[in-house]
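Sample 1 of the test manifest.
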Amino acid sequence: MKQLKKVNLNQIKVKDSFWSPVQELVIDEMIPYQEKVFKDEIPDVEKSHVLANLRIAAGMEQGEFYGMVFQDSDLAKWLEGVAYSLVIRPDKDLEQRADAVIDIIEKAQQPDGYLNTYFTIKEPEHRWQNLLECHELYCAGHMMEAAAAYYEATGKDKFLRAMERMADHIGGRFGTDKERGIPGHQEIELGLMRLYYATGKEKYLKLAKYFIDERGQNPDYFKEERQKRDWVHFNMDPENTFYNQSFAPVRLQETAEGHSVRAVYMYTAMADIAGQTDDRELYDACVHLWDNITGKRMYLTGGIGSTVDGEAFTKDYDLPNDMAYAETCASIGLIFFAKKMLDIEPSGKYADVLEQALYNGVLSGMQMDGKKFFYVNPLEVNPGISGELFGYKHVLPKRQGWYTCACCPPNLARLLTSLGQYAWSEGEDAVYSHLFLGGEFDLDKAFIRVESSYPWKGQAVYHVEGKQKSAFKIAIRIPAWAQNLNVLLNGEKIDTDSCRKDGYCYLERVWGKSDTLEISFDMRIRRIYANTEVREDAGCAAFMRGPFVYCFEGVDNGQLHSLRISTDRKAEESACGEGLFKGMTLLKVPGMRMEGSRQLYSETAPFAKPVTLTAIPYFAWGNRGVNQMKVWMLEK
Amino acid sequence: MKQLKKVNLNQIKVKDSFWSPVQELVIDEMIPYQEKVFKDEIPDVEKSHVLANLRIAAGMEQGEFYGMVFQDSDLAKWLEGVAYSLVIRPDKDLEQRADAVIDIIEKAQQPDGYLNTYFTIKEPEHRWQNLLECHELYCAGHMMEAAAAYYEATGKDKFLRAMERMADHIGGRFGTDKERGIPGHQEIELGLMRLYYATGKEKYLKLAKYFIDERGQNPDYFKEERQKRDWVHFNMDPENTFYNQSFAPVRLQETAEGHSVRAVYMYTAMADIAGQTDDRELYDACVHLWDNITGKRMYLTGGIGSTVDGEAFTKDYDLPNDMAYAETCASIGLIFFAKKMLDIEPSGKYADVLEQALYNGVLSGMQMDGKKFFYVNPLEVNPGISGELFGYKHVLPKRQGWYTCACCPPNLARLLTSLGQYAWSEGEDAVYSHLFLGGEFDLDKAFIRVESSYPWKGQAVYHVEGKQKSAFKIAIRIPAWAQNLNVLLNGEKIDTDSCRKDGYCYLERVWGKSDTLEISFDMRIRRIYANTEVREDAGCAAFMRGPFVYCFEGVDNGQLHSLRISTDRKAEESACGEGLFKGMTLLKVPGMRMEGSRQLYSETAPFAKPVTLTAIPYFAWGNRGVNQMKVWMLEK
């Protein structure tokens, strides 16, 4: 078991007709917008106060802490995104502002390395007493990720060194032979792994592995912690060990349980550590958990978490569309997990889901102007019900400018600016292309320039400039749904049957200075059915084309629940030349509207009036005002 | 506008193949069981303590109050049921025990007439300060209903006089020229009307009318009440005026809002007072409210209340099956309301719904052994989800022996023992048969003996013995769904087209000493469709036969959500000769089971495997262990 090497961002230049505009939007709009939010300069949105907290903790101004106990992490994720953005597009001004924030962070750090504005300002006497609720390790993990990213992006190590001091402070406190402790919200493991990669210091890998292995060894850990203190923060139930995945040692966990973001962050760390330490047992646990999520507990959009109650997984095949949680952060975490699994076993089963989450459940988290965000990504919305009535109150029908718990918006910023890292991995004898991302990739074995018409067309050209004299493989992931795959190597057709394995097309040779690989496949509209165990999708179909899930909105189609899609007539593509959806492929779906008695109940069967429905990519829903939305539509 | 006269229970002897066994079950099992619960003699069920509370308040024993602030009302409803049962089947022993309870009630009553064990035992200083939350008027209303019933059943007036003293105490306190007050939970209005009918004293009618007319005059009433006191009981939001229907004067209310039991109890009183006082405006409000409920906010089972949040109505056409509230008490209240509307305007639109609620949403509240009860009556249950997960926690998949809030079980006892009262009304020139209830009915104008094969067959014979020399009408309600109606008068066929009006078949003549009316109609299986505005029933059909709604259970059919019912093949009757369902007509429904890919999502359309489904009457569900249940099934 050998973990593939990730490709660093400075080896990557994204030049993609779909993703470059998204990254520009993040850099031009989202990152500056979030900076203004952090400075409390945006009116009429939830107050952040995160920068003020930091300045107060640093002794630079007077004031009270405001916000969630994990408020620091919003800024950390944003800084991580800023770091990535500086690689994409250097910006002296932004870098100076980031440096200034880092200066404050360093000032807010305590002499012993401790960093957390909540405890420093409000309850210094309570440090490290409430790992269940208080997110100190969580915030530390995000700060470490940001610090590593900033170091990789700028070469400046001030933040990294500060976070090493924090990591050492943590490592000095927790361990098998020290205080036994585990985080209430996993993330420190990911932060420590980033620190390990950035510094090469094995102690951080060991500490990350400690937190993973310690988890669930004593399922009463949080209960005992609670008994030791006379205060609570959120008053969480310390016996709800499913919520934070401490119900059993992680290697024995077989189903995805509890808070879905905590879960996938942990699985990501498990997979990373398994890959780094060649730990087959830990990897096997990851495979079980992956299969449970993607085989039984995931929305078509790559959303996870079926209930608002604990923002959690529920049971196999329980996937209510109109009550979904499907937090943006959870889909982002699923992408993290998928990439780590891919790096151990390059298989389409991971890459396809990575893509599915990316183009749907993640991208839907962002308004097309980059300044509004969904926390919850439902697959059905009914204005007047969603966001209003019991059971549906969490399902807001429109994106918000900010949230009290603002984990998702800066998570989007850091994911989208680091997208290039998900496009490639490099192994000993192969390079792996996971996404048809257009751009220039300066890999160890080759310089590869990709011209991609993906995701709207199944077409990409890889211009390869080999850097070594020996043969190696270029493995290009071909989505499981792709049909009529055609691969031309320097214009000559390749027998693709013999080169396809586990969702990748492997081409081995000594690559010359200007080889060209042309990939094409049909990008047909797929009609998708859910497993018949999924109650909420019974009788329904959904549409996908390429990586996109489609949805129906009221603004195009009128009242949605009396619509049916025709089983015997095919949907067709409809290029949308103008306006908001310029460049996107929309669908025209033959269907019918059921019209029946005006009585509440009657013996009159509704009759079907033929209509043509319009479907748009799911990620783009909710950009034309509050209206009804549905992914799964009844067939007739 | 002239209100029809209700027929007293002592004019009625129910002898019905369906209902007599139900009444026997109530008398033999339910009433004794509930008596034991009240004495805290049933192990492993929620404790009642209601009799102990009463003895403590009466100074007969020491102890603490236990239970809800409205605990007294459980006993009141039971006593009302006991009264009715004594008419059906005299029982000296039971009557003595009831007398003994009434003696304690009288002892618990305070010298000023006040009766409420909670306040007498726990917070005598807080009497009448918290009408919003504390149910003093509600409990008083139930005690008055019980007292009137006991007087009518036994001729004993001790309880009645006691409750007159309570009514006078209330009337001395509240009124237009006294303290302005309205109940937080309507019921006192119904109790006062019963007292008015039992005593003929108009002051009780006036006081009932005061409470109705006062409601909503000052929508800030409860807010102001809250400001006057420094204590709360449940900490209800006094500004949630929809919850208790105090948001507007009742005459201006057009949609059914808030807590559904509060609502229909109030509408019942409104209709009764409108009928008694010839108040057209009040009646018109009732018609609006009726039409809104039955046209837009009622489940097929006659259940009302779409959400657990406030046990309330939500919005037009919002009728989730698996999250339904549909409280047993609310359907009982809907029957009360229907009967009062019927007595003003005998129309099938009221009688059909009365029957629909009775045979379905009410009867389902009771286990077939008479000793377990549903509070919530869902139209879909999924074990593992229902009763367990957020949103569904209130939807228990099995009936319980008792509840902390035990309003429903004794409400069933009093409704089912007084069923005869819903079967007939008497007008100036007509008698009205609302239900095809078998039995002997000693009406003012005639003695009528009904032999009924209803509800399983559309057949009933009315043997009429006229008591007066002048002509009068016998009006027999014919359900709207009845087809091929055949009416024979002394063996001769009547032209039913000319005699049918508003759901009743009117036959006018001078009735002799032994006239015979034979009614018959087809009792076919009806396939029912919901209005296409009802999201949750889209694509589905349900089955009814006669007054019964049918449902599908897992125990007969396996996993339900992958089943479809065939659009092109008819359901058939299947008499069930044996066992639990002896005598019932079950349905065999041609359908199919969808079997598809084992993947969570795939392009493989599930294929249909023909199967024959079994449907049972909805009221009988949940009598064979915990299993899946559905009323609305997808068609294919």
